[in-house]
Design a protein that fits this description.
SLC26A/SulP_fam, 2 domains, Transcription Regulator spoIIAA, 4-stranded mixed beta sheet, 487 residues, 22 helices, alpha/beta
Amino acid sequence: MTATSKFPYLKQDFAASLVVFLVALPLCVGVAVASGVPAELGLVTGIVGGIVTGLMPGSSLQVSGPAAGLTVLVFEAVREFGLPALGVIVLAAGLLQLAMGAWKLGRWFRAISVSVVEGMLAGIGLVIIAGQMYAAAGLKAPASGIDKLVGLPQALVRALGSTEALASLGVGAGTIAVMVLWKRMPRTKAVPGALAAVALATLASLAFGLPVATVQVQGLLGAIQPPGADAFGELADPAIFGTIIAFALIASAESLFSAAAVDRLHDGPRTAYDKELMSQGAGNAVCGLLGALPMTAVIVRSSANVQAGAKTKASRVLHGVWLLLFAALLPSALALIPLPALAGILVHAGWKLIPFRQIVPLWRTHRGEALILVVTAVAIVAVNMFEGVLIGLALSIAKTAWEASHIKLEVIDKGAGPVQAHLSGNATFLRLPKILDTLEALPQDRPVELDLSGLHHLDHACRTALENWADRHSETGTEPVKVTSAS
């Protein structure tokens, strides 16, 4: 039996794996640096995402690794709990994902409002852009999202007075320009724009001797620091559990939404959501044991995999092998990469997270959903990632409850005889003020017939309020309110 007959798609998968590797390499390094951890840890997560998660069932063509969407959360976690605790957080988040997959909760992530997810990504994108603008100038960014945005003008003024900062900004801006223009240039599809931009920035920095900071290299084995007893001791701090839950929920939501998008790009087997959630959990558990970054499925790498002609999971596994070989054999190459070039890549990635094209059409057709998107994004910038997402989810639930409590109150007054009031729909406490305002405005000296037979649902608060109103109306000496009960 030949290799071709045993692996009929080996040629396509091999070619696709090289493309995905070239796309993933600068992103793995850039996400790690932006997260405030050694660059090699981004490569470790990419390797685990390719080889460990890549071998597992779920989605055959989806590619996992460190994602820009978790950059802000990781940075905050490292700042609050320290780098050694990151492994514990990622390990616990992975175990939580495994449990959610075992409990078959994967499909429920599809029920999360798309507006909340897009608002989350938009908020993350804004924080990434603001933070990486400082990094592009070689300056230290403020801690909070609001301070990052407010401090940008002052940072620009400082940069204009420094030759080193201007050189650094030039490299960052040039990187963004190359990425934007790369797709428009002929015969460039074989080389990903991010890789080309980093390569050109590195060559320019070396050729002109630009005074810009470069990636600090420790070596693969030096960067891997499995969490020790002290790191597990951080679990005594209740605050860490909110971060663990945030990691698990946001990584799961991003991965499963990515899976749904990837399924629309190919005609192969569909994603098994619970199995994919467990695969992501297993990968994150391994990343946690190695002290690396958390992983999610990443739509940029996944779409590149599909568009490059991948047919099976072999392509994503091979891309992990290429990342491992690069990290093991060419670690010194990382030390040549200018930090502002990586900042430029992250600014570009953050910009793509903001759904500019969707906001205006969404506002025209579903203003409530557009409002949820904007409020979620603003909350993430103003407060933090976890609480911002919770605010978005709460708004989404409140909007759904409001819409579900649709009620119609029709009053028929013929001038003589009883006034007829017909209620139909769903009577919940959310609509109670409107119902009572209308009923209390009815003539006090006329008998009233209240027909509730058109109601599909009448909650306890509404039932009690209607009974109290009927008693009050009858106290004026008119005939008792005649109520036709809901069926």
